[in-house]
Amino acid sequence: MPSRKDIESASMLPEASAISAPSPPALMPLVSGNMEADSTCGLQGVRPQLPAAVQVPPTSPVECCAFLKGTYEEALHPGMAPRMTRNVLELNCTATAAEEVESLVAAPPPATPADMDPCAVLRQAVMEQHPGLGAPWIVKEEQVLACDVVTEAGGGAGGGPARTVYQMEVALEGGHVMAVAGKGFKVVLTEADDAGLASGELVVPASFEAALQEPLALAAVARRFRRVHGEEALGRCFPEVFGWDLLQPAPGTYEFEWLDGGNAFAYLKEVMTTTARSADDMYVTVLDAACEMVRLVDAANMAGLSFGDLKAQNMLVDAQGTLKLNDVEGVSLAGLGDLSAAHTAAHAAAAAAAASCIDDARGARTAAKTAAAPVWEAQALQRAPLEPYMVTDIYAPPEFWVSWARQALEQGEAVGSAYQWDVYKLREEAVEQPCWPGAVMLLDRLQRECPTRDDALRLLQGMGGGCGCSYMCGASHTYLLGASISHLLVVVAAELSQRQGEESEQRLAFVSELHGVMARLMTGEPASRPSLRVLRRWLAELRADWCSFC
After folding, report:
1. Do the beta carbons of residue 380 and residue 298 sit within 8 Å?
2. How far apart are CA 388 and CA 219, in angstroms?
3. Which residue, of 6, 321, 454, 541, is most buried by count of CB atoms within 10 Å of its CB?
4. Where is this region: Disordered (predicted)?
C-alpha cells in the first residue's frame, strides 16, 4: 500500500469546516468500497472534533499537502472525464465586507529565515494572497493509516496541473478514524519561481494559481450559498470541508491537494443492480435520490449558481444518505443585483398568494410556492456571466456547443469549403464514440432551420441573449441531470437485461420508465425544457405507480 509520500498527499478547504447540520436519512449509506462524505468511525458514530493545525517538520524531500472533504471521483468512461477550456481564476464575484471568510483553523506562524523551506513560504504566500481559503489543516505522517491511489490525470499536452485522486484513512484525536478522498494538483515551477520561494519571497507564482482554482471556486460558492440559504442549508447541500495544505514531492514541484468523498452514480448503480435489496426498496430509494437531486438543483438555481459539470458522478452521498453538490470548479455566479431582484419578486408573489389563500397553513404554503415558481423559472433562463469552461462532453447540452459550431463554420468559410460539408463533418465528429448528443442536437437544428452558412451564423449569434458564444444557465442543470441519469439508467438496464425472472423484469420496467422521464429533460433549447415543478410532478407520478404498496 503506498504511503502518503508516495502518492503526494491531500487537502480540505476550511470554508465550511464548522458545518455539522443534521441531514434527513433519505437514502441508504454508500455501499462498501465507496467513500462517504461523513464516513467516520468513533464512539457511537459521533462526529470527531478536528485537531488544531499542527506544523509538520520539513522532511527530505519536503512535503506540502492540503485537505478537503467533499466528493470527487474521476470518471472511468473516456467520455465522462471533464474537459476544461479555461485555466484562469475568473470567479466573477467580489466578496463584500459581509461576505469575508473567517479563518476557522489557527494559522501556522510565518516562515522565518531559520526555517525557510519552500513549502512553508508557499503555504504562507497562499494564506496571504487568498485569505478566503483560511488556514491549512496539516496532517502528520503518522496520522495517515492507509492511502490508495484511485486515478491520475492531467498534466499532459492539454495543459493544467496534474491531478491525483486517492483515498485515505486519517486518525484523529480521541481515537476517531475518518475515511476521506484526496484530490491533489501538481505543478512544476520555473527555476526562477522556485528560487524565489527558497529565498523567502511571499508570492504565489502565476503558474501555481491553476492548482488553486477549484478550492477557490468552492470557497466562493460556499460564501454565496451561505448568504442566500444560510449555514444549515449549506451543510445539507455541500460536503463538510476541513482545510488545505501543500506538498513538495520533488525539487521545483509543488502540490495543492484536498480530500473528498462518495459518488451518487456508483451508489445508485449498486442500489438498482444488487440482489440484496428488494425491488420495492429499490424503487423508493432511487426516487428519493431523484427528488434529492431536484432539491439540490433548485437550491443552486436560487443561489444564482450555474454548474457546468453537474452530473451524478459529482454528487456526494454522505453517511446519512443525503446527496450533496461538489466539484464546483465549473461554477459561474450570477450577479448579486439580479439575484436580489429575483428573490424580491418571488417573495412578493409568494406573500400575496399566501395572504389571499383561504385554506389551512399547508395550503397557504403550497399557494406561495406555486406563485413564486414562475419567477425562478424565468431566472433559470438568464445567461450566467461565465461561459462553460469545465464540462463533460457526453452530457453537455446544446448551448455548451455554440462557440465550437460557430468557430468551425467561420473557419470553413475562411478556407472556402461548402457549408453543408462543414456541417456534415461536424456531425460526424459529434457522433463518434463517445457521442456528444448536445452537439448533435445543435447541428440538427442548423440543418433544419439554416439553408445557408449566413443563416447558421446568425442563429448562433443570437443564442444566449445575443452573445454568440457557448453559455450556461439554470435550465442547463435540467439537461445535465437528465443526461447523466439517463446514462446511469442505460448502464443499469444493460446489466438487468441479462438476468432472468419476474423481479428482474419488474426492475427493468421501472428503470425504463424512469429513463423515459429523464430523457424528456434533454431538449434542444433551455426554454423548452420542463421546469423543476413539472419534473417533481413526474417523479410523484412514478412514486404513485411503483411505491404505493411499499
Report:
1. no
2. 19
3. 321
4. 1-23
Residue ranges of the domains in the chain? 1-17+112-261, 264-334+472-546, 336-379, 398-466
DSSP state letter for 407: H
Return the closest-CA partner of residue 26 out of 312, 343, 322.
Answer: 322
What is the model's pTM? 0.74
pLDDT given for residue 28 in this prediction: 24
Pairing of strands 177-188, 253-260: antiparallel
Which residues does 287 contact at the CB level (< 8 Å), separation at least 6? 514, 539, 542, 543, 546, 547
In this predicted model, what pLDDT tens digit does every residue of 326-339 receive, in sequence order? 878 789 999 999 99
- pLDDT tens figures, 113-143: 445 688 888 888 988 888 887 777 777 778 8
**b/e per residue, 424-455, with b = 16+ CB within 10 A?**
eebbeebeeeeebbbbbbbbebbeeebeebee
Gap between the terminal Cα atoms of the chain: 44
Joined together, the cell numbers standing for residue 187 give 505543478
**Cα 197 to Cα 63, 113, 176, 511, distances in angstroms:** 14, 12, 36, 56
Residue with cell 472556402: 416
How far lies 412's CA from each of 2, 404, 431, 446, in Å?
Answer: 51, 12, 20, 15
Percent of the chain residues topping a pLDDT of 70: 71
The secondary structure of 298-323 as a DSSP string is HHHHHTTEEETT--GGGEEE-TTS-E
Task: Report pLDDT for 278.
Answer: 94
pLDDT of residue 173: 76
Helices 279-302 and 361-379 meet at what angle, rounded to 10? 60
Cell of 1: 500500500
The C-alpha cell that represents 290 in the structure block: 431523484
* Other Cβ atoms closer than 10 A to 461: 14
CA distances to 193, 262, 293, 378, 529 from 532, in Å: 49, 25, 11, 12, 9
User: Using H for helix, E for strand and C for coil, what is the string for 185-253?
Assistant: EEEECCHHHHHHHHCCCCCCCHHHHHHHHHHHHHHHHHHHHHHHHCHHHHHHHCCCCCCCEEEEEECCE
Class of domain 264-334+472-546: mainly alpha
What pLDDT sits at residue 485?
98
